[in-house]
Design a protein that fits this description.
mainly alpha; 434 Repressor (Amino-terminal Domain); two-stranded antiparallel ribbon; 21 helices
Length: about 400
């Protein structure tokens, strides 16, 4: 099995290919040469803001810096091409309209695959299911429920494209989700599409633009005067997206504002709820707050928040959120130089959501640092490095 480089290695390769010295690139990124050198050699992780700064300085996309996370991309490539075809044919589905009960069961399976971070299983299902759901909606004319199903299904497709490092496909999927959401006459569906739209800016490292998308979506949704549990989940989720974008933009004030609103809304739902593929409640809000501490260079606070949750994370959260919690905990522990604790957190991430742990850029970045420092002295670490393709 060939090894697949992580973001730090790719920064070095791209820099050298462009004939840029470390001093020049570090200055353009706003970091020290020593810090850049450690990122390139695997002694420090390549955080999302670092990757965004490197991409901007070298005039490439963040996806180019993150690189291809798959050690065997053949199956993913074939399935992604099928999904591209289905998304491209958004008004010309070639599938027949299935019985409503069959469609409903397939839609439930897709949502479950997404929540369980079973991306390959979801990817195998999506092309045909998108065609079937769209054919159903087109046959039903102005049926808002049918178009809502299409919109939510595009939300599942976005999750796959985002996690499998396909930004061009993610952008196209968001436009299709917005197209379907507009036919639901449901402000919550349009807000859910805006949540993913802001995610495309987040992935590209354009945090200020992403914040503008979030704030516009919040304003539009509030003006719709929607109410009930659905509105709380959607509005709260938009504020959580704002927490991520603001903290990565190192805007502490904006982070605190979005977090304050999210906490207020979280108190209005009894448990973490899942609607329109958005998870919101007190538990998920706490995990976003923990991640914000990391982005704002407060890893000690993140570890302090996380320790009581290790082994017993908030109830009701799906593997996609719990797995991300353990990845963030690994980041925080690495930042305070608790290497064994970081490795233990990654092991938990691999147990809860293996496909996410294998390809998530921050999981791979932390793992690369641990692998460089320990090499073959820790068998379990070596096994994780092989699963991600970081070691042959």
């Amino acid at each position: 099995m060939d090894s697949t480089p992580a973001a730090g290695e790719n920064i070095a390769v791209l820099r050298k290919a462009r004939g840029i010295g470390q001093t020049k690139l570090a200055r353009a990124m706003g970091i020290t040469v020593s810090y850049l050198s450690k990122i390139e050699t695997g002694l420090r992780p390549a955080t999302p803001p670092v990757v965004a700064a490197a991409a901007q300085a070298m005039h490439v996309t963040t996806a180019r810096v993150y690189g291809q996370p798959f050690s065997d991309p053949s199956e993913q490539a074939d399935l992604l091409n099928e999904l591209r075809g289905a998304v491209r044919r958004h008004t010309l589905p070639k599938e027949d309209t299935p019985p409503r009960a069959v469609l409903a069961e397939s839609l439930r399976a897709a949502a479950q695959f997404r929540a369980d971070t079973k991306y390959l299983e979801l990817l195998r299902l999506l092309p045909k299911l998108l065609g079937q759901a769209t054919a159903t909606a087109l046959d039903a004319g102005g049926d808002s429920v049918a178009w809502g199903q299409v919109s939510d299904l595009y939300g599942c497709a976005y999750a796959v494209a985002h996690r499998l490092a396909q930004p061009d496909l993610a952008d196209m999927i968001v436009s299709r989700q917005q197209w379907a959401a507009q036919r639901t006459w449901n402000p919550a569906a349009e807000a859910a599409a805006a949540w993913n739209e802001a995610g495309t800016y987040q992935s590209a490292g354009a945090y200020d633009d992403g914040l503008a998308i979030v704030e516009r979506a919040i304003s539009q949704f509030e003006s719709s005067r929607s109410n009930g549990p659905e509105s709380v989940v959607v509005l709260g989720s938009l504020h959580l997206r704002g927490v991520v974008l603001a903290s990565r933009h190192e805007d502490k004030a904006a982070t605190e504002v979005h977090l304050r609103h999210a906490k207020r809304l979280a108190g209005q739902v009894p448990n973490d709820s899942l609607m329109h593929n958005l998870t919101f409640g007190e538990g998920n809000t706490a995990l976003y707050e923990l991640a914000a501490h990391i982005e704002l260079n407060q890893p000690d606070k993140a570890v302090q928040m996380a320790n009581p949750l290790v082994g017993r994370p908030p109830t009701g959260l799906k593997p996609n959120r719990i797995g991300r919690f353990y990845i963030d905990l690994a980041r925080a522990r690495l930042a305070i130089k608790d290497l064994e604790g970081a490795e233990e957190a990654l092991k938990l991430a691999f147990q809860v959501s293996p496909q996410m742990a294998e390809i998530h850029p921050m999981s791979r970045s932390v793992l690369r640092v641990l692998f460089v420092m320990h090499q073959r002295s820790r068998p379990e670490l070596m096994a994780m490095a092989r699963r991600t393709g970081l070691a042959a």
